[in-house]
């Protein structure tokens, strides 16, 4: 459903960082460090990058330690809240009222959309049903949405998550754009059904 | 100190297994594919996180800690992907419980784009455009 990638993956590109990470994963899995495991890990890394070539991800920001820590903290917290709520539903008697909500993201980078979509599935009560690249839209299945007023809450939570993702990975300009939306205040708030 | 860590580890493993049980119960009891996916992704991942934290606290070796971090990280990265693929397929083949749904903004947008996502009375799919740009 997305258009073909403009940047094509080149199969035999030398990717030292990816290979190093894969070798590290291999060392952790094996659990011992010696010449055989290190060389084997590097060989496996090369093999994986050749067999599964991926297009390079370009984005204007850089990873940020503080933003990432905040993102992880909220992630674990959200995961806990979501799990407790679902556990109550699982053992309880009430039947959930689901709903599907459209979220128009404010940032315009593949990486942020993917990360937001990933993490929003962990946030309380939502799963991504569909995603559109061109308009940066996510469609979320909300587990329990008995009142359509709660829709605004879902939109707000998701945009806050997107903001945390951008704060963990984005550039200074993108963060400022999200922190101070001057010209428009979220058009989707007006078109509540 | 070691007793305290052992106790804490055991408690975490116990709490984690409760969440995994809740996930299993949810998968059985929830009404449709999409709500079941919620049970399959969140409490399951959280339960695993708790169990692995407990195991790491009990065994207390660096190898186990790093391995647990990797496992949880990969779970958090992969569970939403498979969940999303299931959800998308379930939605497009109308395998979800839209009778009880309060709003469905995806259906509105899909209709506007020329995609009809309704089943006839036999439950078969009405022919529509099979994908959306």
UniProtKB/TrEMBL annotation, chain A:
GO-annotated cellular components: plasma membrane
Localization per record: Cell membrane
Chief location: membrane
Keywords per UniProt: Cell membrane, Membrane, Transmembrane, Transmembrane helix
TM region(s), chain numbering: 21-52
Membrane topology qualifier: Multi-pass membrane protein
GO molecular function list: monoatomic cation transmembrane transporter activity
Pfam families: MNHE
Keyword Methyltransferase: no
Family: Belongs to the CPA3 antiporters (TC 2.A.63) subunit E family.
Protein known as: Na+/H+ antiporter subunit E
Native organism: Propioniciclava sinopodophylli
Lineage, highest ranks first: Bacteria, Bacillati, Actinomycetota, Actinomycetes, Propionibacteriales
From TrEMBL, chain B:
Molecular-function annotations in GO: sodium:proton antiporter activity
Signal sequence region: none
Pfam family, one: PhaG_MnhG_YufB
Keyword entries, A-Z: Membrane, Transmembrane, Transmembrane helix
Statement: the UniProt record of this protein carries the keyword Transmembrane: yes
InterPro entries for this protein: PhaG_MnhG_YufB
Transmembrane segments: 7-28, 48-77
Protein family per UniProt: Belongs to the CPA3 antiporters (TC 2.A.63) subunit G family.
Protein name (database record): Monovalent cation/H(+) antiporter subunit G
